[in-house]
Design a protein that fits this description.
This protein is an alpha/beta fold and 430 residues long. The chain contains 15 helices and 13 strands. Strand 4, helix 3 and strand 5 form a beta-alpha-beta unit. The protein is globular and about 55 Å long. It starts with a helix and ends in a 5-residue tail after the last helix. It binds glutamic acid (GLU).
Length: 430
């Protein structure tokens, strides 16, 4: 049966084999170390009790404690969380973080909860996971529809249970509760930086790059803003409710302002949509993917580009801000067509990189300046991007995704082999 996790495993097998990774190593990375599945019972404001399925997957701890966000979304399933945790394993290895991969989630539509219900849900999640996670075991963070406030509640709940301070148990916290400066915008900034590295390799001016962005959440907004400020022409933006288009270019600041103005005061989620901005033409979600643009930025959920719509994608470059936005089958078609794709495992790694900085700052009890965070983020991404670029340009018939996976899997392979494999014990290798 097709599933996100089987798709993710298929990619692991194909790219692992192409990079010459041993079968034993690929096999050991084909299954999660542990997944905790539970059901959270939440007292609702009207006095009733509702139940929400919740998960935390610790996929691999070969390179360090597991690391990865928690999402609150009505699509969340064990299958999806395991796929996302596998991708976190690759992502942390690509950018040389001392972390393995993990992911968590709750099957819920958080937009229909009151703020107090949201707090009860967040605390209940941490209560259920308190013995599973920990600063040297598994460190959660924000993901789709979770934010700094939720991380703050979860840190607090963990400390109530453990009866001592443990700021490094979770990252992406509010700055005054041990969060790092620059974490909020880090995913978008990272995606912007790698897009800029690509632009400079290709020698194009920002003004000549028309961009369509799917998703106007934290990451989507931040990359849109940074690209806009640099002079790229943002011609289309969408959110879960619709999309807008203007061939002359959209004003990202204005759209953000309009969206924020409609946010009701007691809500943690924005209730308005980009398409409520009457100045611009509304288009459908499907049309956004078909636009004649230089750069397409999928910044929402998995499988935005599949076999169903891939043939209509005209963009020359794609920066994958979402995790897994292109299915394996669609990816093959785009590769044959020559579309340059900056893969999710590098393109959206800015979030987990600054999470790592936050964890380091918490452990050292020594906060860094914003400049230091931004500089170190840029340094880390530049090294990883150049390695990926070089590998791709030195190998035949290789995509940037293959190059990124090759690097990550070689790193994991070394560590797994050191613990002993058949080849090692049969003396075929030293
Ligand atoms: N949820 C983000 C991701 O998918 C960030 C994870 C983290 O900071 O640990 O990469």
């Amino acid at each position: 049966m097709s599933s996100v996790f089987s798709d993710a495993r298929q990619r692991l097998h194909t790219l692992g084999q192409l990079s010459g990774i041993s079968a034993a190593v690929i096999e050991s990375l084909s299954r999660p170390k542990a997944t905790l599945c539970t059901s959270l019972s939440i007292l609702m404001d009207d006095g009733s009790t509702q139940y929400f399925d919740a998960y935390r997957c610790q996929y691999s701890s070969h390179l360090g404690p597991c690391k990865g966000g928690i999402r609150f979304h009505s699509n969340v399933s064990q299958d999806e969380i395991q796929a996302l945790a596998l991708w976190m394993t690759i992502k942390c290895a690509v950018v040389d973080l001392p972390f393995g991969g993990g992911k968590g989630g709750v099957n819920v539509d958080p937009k229909v909860l009151s703020r107090m219900e949201l707090e009860r849900l967040s605390r209940a999640y941490m209560r259920a996971m308190a013995d599973f996670v920990g600063p040297d075991k598994d460190i959660p963070a924000p993901d789709v529809y979770t934010n700094a406030r939720i991380m703050g509640w979860m840190r607090d709940e963990f400390e109530v249970i453990k009866r001592h301070k443990q700021p490094a148990v979770i990252t992406g916290k509010p700055v005054n509760l041990g969060g790092s400066l620059g974490r909020e915008e880090a995913t978008g900034r990272g995606a912007f930086l790698v897009t800029e590295f690509l632009r400079s390799k290709e020698g194009k001016a920002p003004e000549d790059i028309r961009v369509a962005i799917q998703g106007f959440g934290n990451a989507g907004y931040n990359i849109a803003k940074l690209l806009f400020d640099t002079g790229y022409k943002i011609v289309a933006i969408s959110d879960s409710k619709g999309a807008i288009y203007d061939a002359a270019g959209l004003d990202v600041d204005r759209i953000k302002q309009l969206k924020d103005e409609c946010r009701s005061l007691d809500s943690d989620y924005c209730e308005s949509s980009v398409c409520e901005s009457t100045t611009y033409k509304s288009i459908s979600h499907e049309e956004l993917f078909e636009l004649d643009v230089e750069l397409l930025v999928p910044a929402a959920l998995e499988n935005a580009i599949t076999i169903k719509n891939v043939k209509k994608v005209k963009a020359r470059w794609i920066t994958e801000v979402a995790n897994g936005p292109i299915s394996v089958a669609a990816d093959e078609i785009l590769f044959k067509k020559g579309t340059v794709i900056i893969p999710d495992v590098l393109a959206n790694s800015g979030g987990v990189i600054v999470s790592y900085f936050e964890w380091v700052q918490n452990k050292a009890a020594y906060p860094w300046s914003l400049e230091e965070v931004q500089l170190r983020l840029q340094e880390k991404l530049k090294i990883s991007f150049d390695e990926m670029w070089q590998y791709q340009h030195q190998s035949e018939n290789t995509s940037l995704r293959m190059a990124a996976y090759a690097k990550a899997l070689k790193k994991l392979e070394q560590v797994i082999k050191m613990r002993g494999t058949k080849e090692y014990f049969s003396n075929a290798e030293n």
